[in-house]
Design goal:
Layout: H1 32-37, H2 42-47, H3 52-62, H4 74-79, E1 89-94, H5 103-110, H6 112-125, E2 130-135, H7 140-155, E3 171-176, H8 186-193, E4 219-223, H9 224-236, H10 238-242, E5 252-259, E6 265-270, H11 275-282, E7 292-296, E8 305-306, H12 309-312, H13 318-323, E9 332-337, H14 342-356, H15 362-379, H16 385-398, H17 405-420, H18 422-429, H19 438-441
Helix pairs in contact: 3-6, 5-6, 6-9, 14-15, 14-17, 15-16, 15-17, 16-17, 17-18
């Protein structure tokens, strides 16, 4: 997988440098001195000359939406924090556990100070005294490096007491999780931070409300990529950010491309770029010039889409991807070629969700078990046509009945592959598959780093 994707044309009438993946433009920008020489911490300096409410209004005006999955407007989320709250927190979701997602890792390794700066601006905007960066357990190496970057910022007066003479003080801490996918869900992340079981909370109250956040105080939970946009917005303004993307989905997005493509990697492009451009221009097209069978738009969690002309020409925005039956999510685009057996692919994904289910709610705990069981039977060629309908029915029984989004994600591999690729299931139940060992022997789908929010 290539870390250094080609420099993108932002399609705003001119070429511009990266906003997020600045390590592709500026060597060693992870170093404090290099970051500062290239405009680092100017966004924070500007923020503290404004009132917290004014900072929120700038982020609102930019149209920045959450880059971790849901796409909720960032400034609006910040504005939900009660103005009279005595204690507030910022929790940075760096769990990145969605299969096929590896953007946050590159940001934290290659441009960490911009993340730290963005988190501090958020903390100032909601009057928080502490930021917690929650990293997935497998990120122990980069988390230790991030601790060193935090200390560099502290030594320069950007973290600690009376930051930049503003009278506002804030600490930044890192926290390693234990490698649980469920902790990408914000309330499970907060539980884990508190030392509780990594399981979702019943809501309301929501994290921004008293009783719903970290230590039950109002809390903003934002993804790594989301916050890394904020310093650029503060320095350049909301209108400058809106020159990229679309009216409803402004700005740039890091697209993680993996699977059957010639150039897998991270690509920072304006929202509104089409699947066709992303896959064929930036990622170099399909391996061995094969046809495109399907596209996973958000790792394993969003419904798979067929590789049709309609899908390929769909703009990559939160609203347009939803119109064709999926979601943009973290934009972890996994490309599947014409030879991919979708029963095999569905079984791999359902096994993942079954393994990662926290077990707190019955529909997810039992539903993933039964989907895996029926899918395995179909994959082995021991099923009947009725088992396909049974699998679809089990998926439908999960829908809308779970405490968190994981249960909803878990039904997508089965339901969407049946909807779009039922012929693959029909071949399985008719006994066409060559062997029952295909699950282990079929060529793997390349997704070298598993991650998400």
């Amino acid at each position: 997988m290539g870390r250094g994707a080609p420099h993108p044309k932002m399609k705003a009438g001119r070429d511009v440098a990266h906003i997020i993946l600045r390590d592709l433009d500026i060597p060693d920008i992870w170093k404090f001195d290099v970051y500062v020489e290239n405009g680092g911490y100017e966004g924070l300096k500007k923020a503290v000359t404004l009132t917290p409410d004014e900072v929120i209004e700038v982020v609102k005006a930019s149209g920045l939406r959450g880059r971790g999955g849901a796409g909720f407007p960032t400034g609006v989320k910040w504005s939900f924090i009660p103005k009279d709250a005595e204690t507030t927190y910022v929790a940075v979701n760096a769990d990145e556990s969605e299969p096929g997602t590896f953007k946050d890792r590159q940001i934290m390794e290659g441009n960490p100070h911009q993340l730290i700066e963005g988190a501090l601006i958020c903390a100032y905007a909601i009057r928080a005294r502490a930021v917690y960066i929650y990293c997935r357990g497998e990120f122990w190496d980069l988390t230790h490096a991030l601790d060193a970057r935090i200390e560099e910022a502290r030594a320069a007066g950007f973290i600690g007491e009376n930051i930049l003479g503003s009278g506002w003080s804030c600490e930044v801490y890192t926290h390693l999780g234990a490698g649980a996918y469920i902790c990408g869900e914000e309330s499970a992340l907060l539980n884990s931070l508190q030392g509780l079981l990594g399981q979702p909370r019943v809501r309301p109250p929501f994290p921004a409300q008293k009783g719903g956040g970290l230590y039950y105080e109002p809390t903003v939970v934002n993804n790594v990529e989301t916050l890394t946009n904020v310093p650029w917005i503060m320095v350049n303004g909301a209108d400058a950010y809106r020159q990229f993307g679309t009216e409803q989905s402004p700005g740039v997005k890091v697209f993680c491309v993996s699977g059957h493509v010639n150039r897998p990697g991270n690509y920072e492009l304006p929202l509104g770029t089409t699947f066709r451009e992303l896959i064929y221009e930036h990622a170099g097209g399909i391996l061995d010039d094969k046809g495109l069978k399907g596209v996973l738009t958000a790792g394993a969690s969003a419904p798979i889409l067929p590789g049709s002309a309609e899908v390929l020409d769909t703009p990559l925005t939160y609203e347009d991807v939803q119109k064709v039956g999926s979601s943009l999510g973290s934009a972890s685009v996994i490309v599947l070629d014409e030879d991919t057996d979708m029963v095999w692919a569905a079984l791999k994904m359902v096994r993942f969700f079954k393994h990662e289910s926290c077990g707190k709610c019955t529909p997810c705990r039992e539903g993933t078990f039964w989907m895996e069981r029926v899918l395995s039977r179909i994959h082995r060629g021991e099923a009947t046509e009725g088992d396909i309908d049974l699998l679809d029915e089990v998926a439908a029984q999960i829908k809308g009945k779970c405490l968190c989004a994981l249960g909803e994600f878990a039904l997508n591999p089965a339901a969407a592959t049946i909807a779009h690729f039922r012929d693959d299931y029909a071949r399985r139940v008719s006994g066409v598959p060559e062997s029952t060992a295909e699950l282990e022997t079929q060529a793997p789908i390349e997704a070298p780093v598993a991650a998400g929010d």
